[in-house]
Amino acid sequence: MHKAYRPFAGLPVLRFLHPRITMMWRSMREVDADIYYQRSSDVLTTLVAEFCRFHGKRSIFAGASDVDFLPGHQPIRFRRDKWLFEHGLRRVDRLIVQNATQERSCRIHYGRDSILIPSCYELPPDSKRSSGEFVLWVGSIRRPKRPELFLELARRLPQERFVLIGGAGDHNSGGKSYFEQIRKDAAALPNVEFTGFLPLARVEKYFDRAKVLVNTSVYEGMPNTFLQAWARGVPTAAFLDTGGRLHGRSPYPIVADMDQATAQVTRLCSEEGYYARIAAQCRQYFEATHSIGEVVSRYGQLLDELAPSVGAVRRVKK
Questions:
Q1: Range of the domain at 108
Q2: Which pLDDT band, with edges at 50, 70 and 90, does 312 fall under?
Q3: Claim to verify: residue 224 and residue 299 sit in the same structural domain
Q4: How many domains does the structure of the chain reveal?
Q5: How confident is the model at residue 93, as a pLDDT?
C-alpha cells in the first residue's frame, strides 16, 4: 500500500493538479510496476494511461459498474473530469468488463473491444453458515441504491426480520440528509435492524446468517454482495439483471416492482422447495463463473500477454 495524498489536501480548485495529480504520478513512479490496473470511472483513468505511455508501461482499466461505459451517466461531477475519463478510456492498453452488458456498451459507445473477466470472491476461512434468520440488504446508502424500497418491503412483510447494513455513500449535505432519513425510517419499523456502516469482517457474519439477499439498485456491475451470498447458497432477489445466465436463465429472480419483490421474498421465505432450487442455482452459477480459480486464470492470461510487450519496450528505451 502506497499513500499518495490526503483526500482534501491542498487548495480548492488547485488541488486537482497538486497534490492529486502530482503526488499520484510520483507514487506510480516510485512503485515502478510493469502493469498498472485502475478501476471505475475517474480522472485517474487518463493519469494512469498517460503515465504508462510516457514510461513504457502497460495500463488496464476495469469497469466497476454498467454506467462506466454509458456516456453522460458516469458518476463524475465536472464536465472536465468526464472528458478526461473518456480520454483515458481510449488510451489505456486493455479494458476489462464484468458482464456482457458492459462489453456491448464499451464497443457501441467507445469503439473498443474489451475482455470479460467476472468478479471473484472466496469465503472467509471462519465462515459458518447457519439457518437463515433474516432478509438482508448491504450497500452504501445512496439514492441509486434505493434502500427505501427495502424498507417498504419490510413494511409489507411484518412477519419477517430485515437487516439493513450501510454507511453514507455521499458525504455532502444531500447525502448525509438522505442517510439520516433512511436511519429514521428504519428505526420506525420494529422488524428492521439498521446497523449503519460495518467493516467487512462483521458484514461477512451477517451473510452467514442471512436467509435472502435483496438488491434494490437502479444499476450495478456485478455486486460483490451477490457473490458473498451465492458462495454461501443464499438466494437473491433483485430489481436489476446482471446478465448472468445458467442454462439460458437468470440464476435468481429479477423483479420489476414492489409487488413482484414482495411476492418473491414471500415465496423464498415460505416455500422450502422453491428456496432450495434458487439457492442451488445461485451456488452453481457462482462456482462456474466467480470462483477464485476461474477468475485468476483469466487474469493470468491477460498479464502474461501484456508482460512481454513491457519488456520489449524497456529494452528499446535502454
A1: 33-120+293-317
A2: low
A3: no
A4: 2
A5: 97
Task: Tell me the one-letter amino acid at 72.
Answer: G
Confidence check: pLDDT of 311 > 70:
no
Amino acid at 102: Q
Q: How far is CA 138 from CA 54, 86, 146, 226, in A?
A: 41, 30, 11, 10
Taking 70 as the threshold, does the pLDDT of residue 243 lie above it? yes
pLDDT of 159 > 90? The answer is yes
100, 61 Cβ separation under 8 angstroms: no
What is the Cα–Cα distance from 288 to 58, expressed in whole angstroms?
30
CB 114 within 8 A of CB 106: yes
* 47/178 same-domain check: no
* Distance of alpha carbon 193 from alpha carbon 246, whole angstroms: 33
Same domain, 69 and 112: yes
Residue 169 and residue 239 in one domain:
yes
Residue 316 has a pLDDT of 46
- The DSSP line for 19-52 is IIIHHHHHHHHHH--SEEEEESSSTHHHHHHHHH
- Structural domain includes residue 105: yes
pTM (predicted TM-score): 0.79
What are the residues whose beta carbons fall under 8 Å from the beta carbon of 135, sequence distance 6 or more? 153, 154, 157, 160, 161, 162, 163, 210, 211, 212, 213, 214, 265, 269
Look at residue 318 and tell me whether its pLDDT is greater than 50.
Answer: no
Examine the domain organization and report whether 285 and 298 are in the same domain: no
Are 76 and 167 found together in one domain? no
